[in-house]
Amino acid sequence: LKGSSATPKLGAVGSAEGASDQAMRIEKCWFCSSNIYPGHGIMFIRNDCKTFRFCRSKCHRHFKMKHNPRKMKWTKAYRRAHGKEMIMDSTFNFEKKRLTPTRYNRNLMVKTVRAMQIVDRIKAVRKERFHKTRLAAQLRKRQTSAQKEIARGSHILEGPSKEKALNYQKEFAGSTKAKSRMKLKVEKKSARGSMEVEE
């Protein structure tokens, strides 16, 4: 059974100023986790009555071909699995479905709408911070690889660039020494632990 996922609007919700805003249920695509707005997308119902919603025919085709969303680079599942997006955060708890019905209360609805807006703002800020730190780490890696290349070719360079290269050489020599010391400490600890176990 296939059809459009036209979900009914939840009704009018009064804002703090008194103007009525209409709330709508925004579903998530089963394959790529993008938003599906009312009147859009495809809904597939399996024989065991489980429903799958898709944002477009591309996702639906991939689902029918039994493709794994974790292996497609353009899906959210892939990005989360490869550390490109936030996985653990307290703001995700608000997105969980709650099946317990609540009696309509105007004040409660106004408060929930305000809370949703605040949570969205917090989520956006945290996402931006996460992406900045991720990109900064990548940039640091690139810089260190370039600096290593300069340090290797210090005998070719001349002038002030040669001084820079020599400085980089000293830095890398110090860091390698520190790493080797740490490795020795870890090895000694593991050897002591194994001796204790044998005794």
Oligomer: single chain
Order of helices and strands: EEEEEEEHHHH
Tally of helical segments: 4
Strand content: 5-15%
Cα distance, first to last residue? 67 Å
What global shape is seen?
elongated
Primary descriptors:
199 residues, mainly alpha, two-stranded antiparallel ribbon, 4 helices, 50% helix
Brief account:
With 199 residues, the protein is mostly helical. It has four helices and seven strands; from the N terminus they run βββββββαααα.
Describe what this molecule looks like in 3D.
50% of the residues lie in helices and 12% in strands. It has helices at residues 57-64, 76-81, 106-152, 160-198; strands at 2-4, 11-14, 20-23, 27-28, 35-36, 42-45, 51-54. Strands 1-6-7 form a 3-stranded antiparallel β-sheet. Strand 6 (42-45) and strand 7 form a beta hairpin. Helix 3 (106-152) packs across helix 4 (160-198). The N and C termini lie far apart (67 Å). The longest helix is centred in the middle third of the chain and has 47 residues, at 106-152. The protein has 199 residues and is mostly helical. The relative contact order is 0.07. It contains 4 helices and 7 strands.
What is the topological layout?
Layout: E1 2-4, E2 11-14, E3 20-23, E4 27-28, E5 35-36, E6 42-45, E7 51-54, H1 57-64, H2 76-81, H3 106-152, H4 160-198
